[in-house]
Each structure stands twice: as C-alpha cells, then as structure tokens.
Request: fold
Amino acid sequence: MSTVATQPHTYSGPLGFVRDTLLLTGRSLRAIPRVPERLLDVTIQPIIFILLFLYVFGSAIHVPGISYKDYLFPGIIAQTLAFGVIGAGTATSADMAEGVIDRFRSMPISRLSIITGEVVGQVCEQVLGVAITVGFGLALGWSPHLTVVHGLELAGLMTLGLFAFTWCGILFGMLVRSPDAVQGMGFIIILPLSFIAGVFVPIAGMDAIPRAIAHWDPISALVATVRSLTTPGYHSAGSWQLDHPELAMLIWCLLLMAICVPLALRRFNRTLAA
Amino acid sequence: MAASAISTKGLTKRFGDFVAVENLDLEVEAGTVVALLGPNGAGKTTTVRILATLLRPDGGTAQIAGHDVVREAAQVRALISLTGQFAALDKNLTARENLVLMARLRGRARREAQLIADELIARLDVLDFRDRLVKNLSGGERRRVDLAAGLIDRPQVLVLDEPTTGLDPRSRQVVWTTIRELVGDGVTLLLTTQYLEEADALADHVVLIDHGRSVASGTPAQLKAQVGQQRIDVIAADSSAFDALVSVMAERFDVTSRPEQRTVSVPAPGEAGDLARVAGVVEASRIHVDEIALRRPTLDDAFLALTGHAADAPEDERELTAA
Reply:
C-alpha cells in the first residue's frame, strides 16, 4: 500500500451524495447484461404478450371505434411499467440478501445513496423495457398520434410512473426477503390487476366486480393515460379516475411515492443481511 | 494517552427474548490483535456488527478510537473496516471491479482507485481470477477478494468475522500471512473464530465468549495452561487389548484411561518425540490397537475446562478443530 500515499479526498454533503449515487448506479447497471433472467423479464415478456394478444386472442376481441393494434400497444406499455414493481422487487430482495449491502452500510458513504443508486439503476432497466416495447410496436405497424404537448406530457408522466412503481417494488423487495417469493407474490397481485386494468379488453364490458376494481385500479389510470395521449379521439370513462386519467395518474404516482419512499428508507435502516 | 482502539462497556443486544450479547466488556489496545473465540451462536457476529455500526446496542456503550458507535457512527465508519463471514462483494462484478468500486466510494479518483485495486490484487494473490465475476469464484477466492476490499485505505481498526471458516488450506494460509503483515504495520485487529488454533496463531489476547458473555480472557498461553496440554490417545482394538494396554502403558507413562472408549491417554508436551516413544512401546507390546494419535486441545476442551460445559459447535467443526 505504499505507491498510493496520498489521502483520499473526502466528499461530503450533496456532492458526496451525488457522487456515491452515480458510482452505485454504475454498479446496478453493470449487473443488467450479467443477469440475463432480469433482462428477459423486461424484454421478452412484453413481446410475448404483444404476440399472443395481437395474433392469437386479438381476432376475437372487438373494440368499437379503434383498431385492436392501436388499442393494445398503449396498454402493453402501461403494463410494462406496472411489471416494474416485480422486477425492482426481485432485484432489491436479491441485493439485500447479499453481504455487499452491509459493506456499503459500514463504509463512510451516504446511506441514502445506496438506495438511490438502486432506484436509478432499476429505472434505467425499466426504461429499456419500455423502449423495447415501443420499438417492437412501431415495427409491427402501431402508429401513435402524438402532438408535441402530449408527447412531453406522456414522457413526464411515464418518468414519474417509472420512479413511483420502482420505489413501490423496492419497498416490496425489502419486506419480502426472498426473490422467489417476490416474483411469485408479484405475479399474483400485479398480473390480475393489469388484466383488469383494461390492457387487453375494454373495462366497460367486464363483469360487475372486476369492473368495480378496474375503476379504481391504479394500473387503469396508467393504461388510460397512455391510451388517451397516443390515440386521438379515444376517451376512457366509467369512474372519476378514468374520466381524468392524467390527473389520476399524477395523484397515484405521488401517493405511491409518499407511502413507499419513507417506508423503504425506514426499512433499509433496519434491514440486515443474513 | 490515546483511547483504546476498541472499548465496550456492558454491551448488550437482545433479539426479542434472545440475549445475543450480555454485559460484554472489551478493551483492545491500538496495534494489538484480539480474538473473540466461541462456538456458533455465542454472540461473536452480533458484537462485531455493533462495532461496525450495523446494529444498535440495547445497552452499554461501544467506542472505536474514542468515538461512540451510535452517536458518532460517521467517524467510526471512516476508521473501521468489517470483513464479514459472508463475502461482502457484488457478485455481478469482477473481483477487480469490486475493489475499484470500493476504493472510489472511499473518495479515490478512478486512476488512484485502480492502482489501489491492483496493489491489493497482487498482495492477496488474486491475480489469477481478478477479471472473473465474483459469483463464479470459489469460497476461498471470494474470501481473499473480500479481505482485499477490507484493506482499502488501510483502516485503523480491522474487524474480521471468522476469516477462515470453511477455507481451503491455501486460502487460509494467505489470510493468515496477510493478517500477520497487517499487524506488523500497526493495524488494530479484532477477529472472531471458532478455532482455538487460529486464535493461538494470530492473537495477542483471547476472549472466550459463550452465550453472549465473556467467560475467560488472557493470552493464548494463559488460556492453554488452563485448558491443559496436548496428549496422545491410544485406542485399543477390543476390551481385552485395552486391559493389556493399560497395564503396559502405566509402567512407562503417566496415563489416564477411559474404558468406555478403550482409550489410554498420555500427556505429550514434546509432540512428535512423545508420539514416537508411545508408538514404540505399543509396537513392542504387540497389543492390537486401532489408532495412535496426537490430540491438541480443542475449543471443546477449552470450554469444558473453563465453563464446565461443552461448546455447542456443530459436529463437522469439532472435527476440524480436533484434526
């Protein structure tokens, strides 16, 4: 240890936090290509849903006033966002069980940066998933009609949504300590909620009980937002949140963050690796 | 006079009804090596996790170089480095990437961090596998990388939690050599171990802990004096052989016998020389024996001698210490 004789520079305050967050985000990002099953969740899964519903079930589904292709893609994009809960949860749960988090926690770095590094890394992974879904949709002939204003609105709401659902997944991953359990429970909760949310078939035609759930399902707000911003002339209706999808989505995202962020941070300060 | 490197007073930690650490007092002088010796579940890991600011004590105080681990956690984290029982590395990064990341998180610029990583890679014999992902390394290789990560920026106080448990002999040797070098450099070291042999080889001072309490402490020599010396056990092939063996051996040596195990024991302060003499006597008597072996005092012997009950170490670990 003789050739590096100088003392390390100490970064503190906001600068230290940003520096630590960037370093730890880099760590999360490098894991993506090295854990192929994680990448498959955000890439192959939406593609399979698209193919199944567009070419298998789609022929039997009739949505008045809109082609099924234009109906389906906004739904799948929103569903990809919602599935981020499972992805972020699984990755967090696996990470928290590793001794490396303990190493970070016992180092003179900002503790918050350990979580924010995780969040930013996860969000990047989800962005990749959404980009693949959109790209695949465009390749199959989906043609969204976006004005500049709507485009910016959509980008802003999607970014907020990515962070909100990722934080939700991170809390989930911290509460449920085994990645397999996160995966299993995640599917039991998110899969029905996303099917009910009008991703594949209109809510209006559903039976009374799922329709009632759909009217207040946060994923419905997500689906309706993407759909109404990309499809001119399309209006969702049925409940307050479906009449005002963008506002509802904004409220849901802020609400999820207001609940999940403090709980996740509190949990993190108490969580210990095995 | 500077404060002790590590000092705890009345340290207590409970998990529900279970008392993991109870009223533990420790004083470790700067530049010395102290071993916490005890079986699984004795409270060793809990103690070191409190010292590394990962757990809050329920009672008592702990200080690192005069800084309280609860109130001055930030200062403590700058002084201490913990290498845990489970490799604290990112398994999706390579060995070298891990070391560079840790160095950068400690405030080093990229180039400096790489130099530090390469130096530690050479020092801990990691060169052969530095570019392999940690998840593909063997347990011993991981532990070496882990130890390297703990040595970045030479911490004042290094805490090693069971650094050689489950390691192959080569890795154990690398770890021991590195520990000895560090101590030569003036680092204060607290290590936990289940192996009496390891405490003996490395530590200036040994604290024997059991059920969260300190049951004995002293230099390795003092503890061993209380535990008793090594001995040679001769195990007879059957009970008639045992009777013959007792009578032959008792003429020459100061024996103790355990008929239920058909074992005759002889104190063996002189190791190999004693072994040769005992073997010679047994050979000349033509009595059938199953085994003649040199036995070192084990953690079990230590516990039996100092606490009056056996340590609850798992079977396989008892065999390791007795080997």
Notes: Chain A touches chain B at residues 1, 3-4, 6, 8-11, 20, 23-24, 26-27, 30-31, 34-35, 98-100, 102-109, 272-274 (CB under 8 Å).
